[in-house]
Prior knowledge:
There is one protein chain. By secondary structure, this protein is α+β, with helices and mostly antiparallel strands. It is 24% helix and 33% strand. The protein contains 9 helices and 21 strands. It has a 6-stranded mixed beta sheet with strand order 6-7-8-3-9-10, sandwiched between helices. Strands 13-12-11-14-20-21 form a 6-stranded antiparallel beta sheet. The protein has a 5-stranded antiparallel beta sheet with strand order 15-19-16-17-18, with no helix packed on it. Helix 2 (92-102) packs across helix 3, helix 2 (92-102) runs parallel beside helix 4 and helix 3 crosses helix 4 (136-148).
Amino acid sequence: MSEVTLTNVVKAYGATPVIHGIDLAIRSGEFVVFVGPSGCGKSTLLRMIAGLEEISGGQIAIGGTVVNDLPPRARDIAMVFQDYALYPHKTVFENMAFGLRLRKRPDHEIRARVGEAASILQIEHLLQRKPRELSGGQRQRVAMGRAIVRQPKAFLFDEPLSNLDALLRAEMRVEIKKLHQKLGNTIVYVTHDQVEAMTLADRIVVLQSGNLVQYDTPDGIYNRPAAQFVAGFTGSPPMNFLPCRIGEGGRTIHLAGGVDLPVPARRVAECARHVGRDVVFGLRPEHVGVARAGDPSQAAVGGRVMLVEPLGSDTLALVRLGAGDGAGEMTGRFAPDAGLAVGQALPIGLALDHFHLFDKTTGAAIRGADW
């Protein structure tokens, strides 16, 4: 078993706390991604699991063994770094074999393990080259191969794709996903890229200022965010937010600019508990578009196009809702042939079955029993 468990893990540098009591259970064979903005503590948390950073409090267990006092080499993990960390004077074969040679494994075993890893990663033809002769993607495969030959309980990846260009990052995401499906090892992966998190993870840990904000599946993170921070961090572009007030009986949401939105019947009871309360209304761009006549799933609102961003497969547009003072703006995702132009007036359709509400002060999601 290779589960990884963190219990009330704390990290402080002197009197400055940076990780605030993290509790986390990663199942054996699971692919878990730590995501969050720069400085949120995700790499620090990974390095504490690896034993490269001492913890200030709490407990870390790998495969049921508490590892607080164990050095990195005794934790049975393998780490893949952002900068590859390859020995420039050694061949690919010797880079991959280095850890096994340190453990004094026999030559026949080293050749077999390196050969198997090279086959999995399709780099058999590179084994006699030096790192300087390789592309960035090839170097990353070598770094992954060096980890694979260790046959560890868990792999730890620290932003491994951040040095690659966009196309190569997309290709390597596919390779890492295939690798996990083939090997089935536990993987803990750090990234600041929410696209990587959403496409790779079985579950995602969203961190903010050293606190765990949400631990959930990609679907849960995207469609049921626990906080405004999570909703605003995921999605490209992220969720739209506007201040609002819940109207009488929970049947209406009042936005700035004189825009009143009808609450769908299934969510009236949820909103009725917050009548008169000032909250934050959230709606993702894919739920903002051109109003379709007679479509009961939409609320039609008068709008004006403020900015157009053609993307080929679709078009993003910033639209202003209503005409009153303080009218709010939202980004919508439109069909590429919508023919939008800056300054154009058009009816905007809001898919209100998908709206979110957040506490104005704490940012916590406001949810009903059926949501």
